[in-house]
Model the fold of this input.
Amino acid sequence: QKEVEQNSGPLSVPEGAIASLNCTYSDRGSQSFFWYRQYSGKSPELIMSIYSNGDKEDGRFTAQLNKASQYVSLLIRDSQPSDSATYLCAVKRTSYDKVIFGPGTSLSVIP
Amino acid sequence: EPEVTQTPSHQVTQMGQEVILRCVPISNHLYFYWYRQILGQKVEFLVSFYNNEISEKSEIFDDQFSVERPDGSNFTLKIRSTKLEDSAMYFCASEEVGAGYTFGSGTRLTVV
Done:
């Protein structure tokens, strides 16, 4: 069974701080990696995708990938209360494969 | 921005009844998916659909489930005889190849 693991949290950070979210995956054949944000009762929303080792930045978000360690992370700089949500790490093996989701990490940004 | 549309937003049904959940994927996407999320649990894959046929299905997607794309735009999930444990949020998603999913807003299915 291919697994994606995340700390369930809750992770609490003060407003303006950096939030760091981590994810590990078991399938070494995974090629595509995603971070989704899910507000309570809502559908997941894609916020970052990363396909090669290293960092990828988009605004306040930075995704980091280390395939050798089977590790993906998401950094949120200058955290805002509106960032309070569950963050889902997701992986897929090939472009044509399904996405497998982790259980999510709940983030709470304290004003 | 293009979006995936799901109807209804909430469906209440009696155990043993059939339900059909409807989705309109983004028009130029080729891959379509159904996922479900039981309250408090993770998002689980049900089925993927490409070129008018199922490309993969999970263990959850047993004989009581079926999908079809009857008219080239709608993408439906049918549950033939609902059980209490089918109560969940059901999400439809579509994808340009490898770009990540766009999810619909979901249908909350409550089986009583």
Q: What stands out?
A: Chain A touches chain B through 20 residues (CB under 8 Å). DSSP finds no helices and eleven strands in chain A.
